[in-house]
Amino acid sequence: MRKVVKLALVFAVVVLPAVGVAGASAQDGAALEAEVADAVAQLTATYGANDIEGYFALYAPELTWWGPSGRWDKAKYLAYWTEYIESTGGLASAENSDMQIAVAPGGDLAVASYILSVSRANPGDAAPTVTYQMSPTLMKRNGSWTIVHLHFQIVPEPE
C-alpha cells in the first residue's frame, strides 16, 4: 500500500507538472503574453484617465504596493490615490513602453516590466512629467489577470 501511495505522489508531483509544461505550446505562451500586455494596457489607460474605480478593480484585494514610501496595502494606496486626484486633478496622460513579460509555465502567473511615462494635470511644485520603472506581478483568476503586487521606482533625471 505504501508503495502505491509513493508512486501516486511521484506521479502527482513530477509527472503531471511536466506534462502540463510540455503541453504548452509557443502559441499558448504568446497568447498569454498578449493577455498580460492587454491587462497592463488597461491598467495604464485607467491610471492615465484618473478612473479610480476602473484602476483599482484591476488589483487583487491582497495587493502589496511597493514604492518610494514603502510597502502599502490596497486600502492605503486607494486612499492615497483618491486624495491625490481630488487635490491635484490627477494625471493628464500615461503611456507605457519597453514592455517585457514573463509567464510562468502553468500559465497563471506573470511578471511584466516596462517604462511608464506620466504627465501630471496640475503639477504645482512637482515636475510636470515623471518616468517610472514598473514591475507588476499578475495572477490569472477566473479567466482574468489581476495584479497582486506592484513595485515601481522613479527614473532619476539625468544629471
Summary, kept brief:
The chain is 42% helix and 39% strand. By secondary structure, the chain is an alpha+beta fold.
Overall spatial form: globular
- CATH uppermost class: Alpha Beta
**Alpha-carbon Rg, integer:** 20 Å
Structural class: alpha+beta
Fraction of residues in H or I helices: 40-55%
How many domain units?
1
CATH domain fold name: Nuclear Transport Factor 2, Chain: A
Mean pLDDT, all residues: 86
Total count of strands:
6
- Termini separation comes to 70 Å
Biggest beta-sheet profile = 6 strands, mixed
| Tally of separate helices | 4
Strand content: 35-45%
- Helices and strands, in order, run as HHHEEHEEEE
- In what order do the strands lie side by side in the largest sheet? 2-1-6-5-4-3
CATH architecture: Roll
Uncertain regions spanning at least 5 consecutive residues: 4-23
Question: Would you mind describing this structure in some detail?
Answer:
The chain has about 160 residues and is α+β, with helices and mostly antiparallel strands. It has a single domain, classed as Nuclear Transport Factor 2, Chain: A. The chain is built from four helices and six strands; from the N terminus they run αααββαββββ. The protein has helices spanning about 1-25, 25-50, 50-55, 75-90, and strands spanning about 60-65, 70-75, 90-105, 110-120, 130-140, 145-155. A six-stranded mixed β-sheet has the order 2-1-6-5-4-3. The termini are far apart. Residues about 5-25 have low confidence and may be disordered.
